[in-house]
Structure prediction request, 164 residues.
Amino acid sequence: MATKKKDVAVVDGKFRMVKYPGKGGWTYVTVPDFGDNKKTHFALHRINLVIDGLRIENTSIWKTKKGDYFLPIKAEIRKKISKQEGDTVHIQLFKIPEVLQSPDEIMECLKEEPAALKRWNSLPLNEKTELIHWIMSASKEQEKVNRLADVINDLLDPRKLKNT
Prediction:
């Protein structure tokens, strides 16, 4: 299956599948660093993947101590692409876009609620800065979304937020 037009692969190359030694060892490929220096829990990164034409959405890749990435290839996937340990596979990795990447996106959400936007515009700069920092500092995307929803709801409630 082809990738979406707006997707740009952060890794696009051919890699050899290796099996970790021992009973139950994982089959995996080692992928070079693609510049994602974001700190994550257990160095786990969420990606979309195309392996030999098979698209896999929202899967995991782990950064190793060496700085490259460990990408396990499940038996189910190996079966679908008719590949096994020692075979070479064509891999494309795509970063999953963050839900909230910048304060511009916060403003786009505020524009959906004109009353909230009006109140936002009346806030002192330091309070807006604190709220943006609080939203953007969430470690998980869903938490960012939840925080933004909380701020918008507070803006819509005249009893909430100081200095307004």
About this structure: The beta strands are 11-16, 18-19, 27-31, 44-51, 54-63, 69-72, 88-95. The chain has five helices and seven strands.
